[in-house]
Design goal:
Number of helices: 11
GO molecular function: metallopeptidase activity
Oligomer: single chain
Bound molecules: zinc ion
Helix content: 40-55%
Distance between the termini: 46 Å
Radius of gyration: 20 Å
Order of helices and strands: HHHHEHHEEEHHHHH
Strand order of the largest sheet: 1-2-4-3
Strand content: 5-15%
């Protein structure tokens, strides 16, 4: 089994979260030594982008179905995506911390932007089901080239990857933050969005990552209660229902920069970070001055 076949198995475990249940497909063991090979077979018969080419054939030729967050199978300290030999323990891995060529676009202009974003932010923007919209990468580079981007980078331990998908599990979603794998997932086709909307979209998803980088449950509920008027109980898990419920308070203060920020405390925080980034880069925004000061404070050393 080569690396990409193996990765496609782990991919399957994540694909439900990303794109919903796999399409109808044959279920049979592919590899008798591999107890969960049934999961593999789902991928083996899946054509996610509908181009008539099965995904596993596509990725066999160093294609795009590599994805982040997969474990370090050989235990050499390098996760599979970065490991040229994912099933062989390599003692000397210190030189490998660079952007692997198989995660780069065939389009050299896009590949240059992927490398630039990595140099600025440490984030691997991996070509997956298709290329990134170049304007998306340009917007991400603009954010991380700015002073505020540097401050965000210093705190942002929970975003290591971005990758582009043709479909997301929520049809209306343009992007998602996947907390279990420290990744931002984005649509390949973002042509309907203006450049400023792209900046806002990235900043919003970075906001979700920042939430998990900065807060434990108790400290986030305190922050949201103090500065947003939420009524969150700090004794529950950060994914407990109350954190994902719409705003219940009677008098909302000025910390809601959009209608969407009322939808949950997580979205409230992400929206405020989005508008904070817009404000910092000189774009139109609706960030309140108190929230500007609070986010400034969170990003200080
Ligand atoms: Zn969101």
């Amino acid at each position: 089994m080569n690396k990409y076949r193996f990765l496609s198995f782990v991919w399957t475990l994540l694909s439900t979260a990303l794109i919903g249940a796999p399409k109808p497909c044959l279920y049979f063991p592919i590899h008798r030594d591999f107890p969960m090979s049934q999961a593999c077979s789902i991928v083996e018969h899946q054509d996610m982008d509908g181009d008539g080419e099965l995904d596993w054939r596509w990725n066999r030729n160093f294609g795009s179905l590599v994805f982040p967050g997969d474990p370090d199978m050989d235990g050499d300290g390098l996760e599979n995506f970065l490991d040229h030999q994912p099933l062989r323990f390599n003692e000397n891995i210190s030189h490998v911390r660079s952007f692997p060529s198989y995660g780069l676009s065939d389009d050299s202009k896009i590949a240059d932007m992927q490398k630039k974003l990595f140099d600025l932010s440490g984030i691997y923007a991996i070509v997956n089901q298709g290329d990134f919209d170049p304007r998306f990468l340009k917007a991400a580079i603009e954010i991380f080239s700015s002073p505020i981007g540097l401050k965000i980078k210093d705190k942002l331990s929970r975003v290591r990857y971005m990758f582009a998908f043709k479909e997301l599990s929520r049809p209306q979603a343009l992007g998602l933050y996947l907390e279990p794998i420290d990744a931002i997932v984005i649509r390949t086709d973002l042509s309907d969005l203006s450049y400023q909307e792209l900046v806002e979209l990235i900043a919003h998803e970075l906001g979700h990552g920042l939430l998990f980088s900065l807060f434990q449950t108790a400290s986030f509920s305190q922050f949201a209660n103090d500065h947003g008027g939420w009524r969150l109980d700090h004794r529950t898990h950060i994914y407990a229902k109350q954190f994902l419920d719409p705003f219940q308070g009677t008098v909302a203060n000025g910390s809601f920069p959009s209608a969407y920020s009322y939808s949950s405390s997580h979205e409230w925080f992400a929206e405020n970070v989005a508008h904070y980034v817009l404000a910092s880069l000189g774009y139109r925004h609706k960030l309140s001055e108190p929230m500007m000061a609070q986010i400034d404070r969170l990003l200080q050393h």
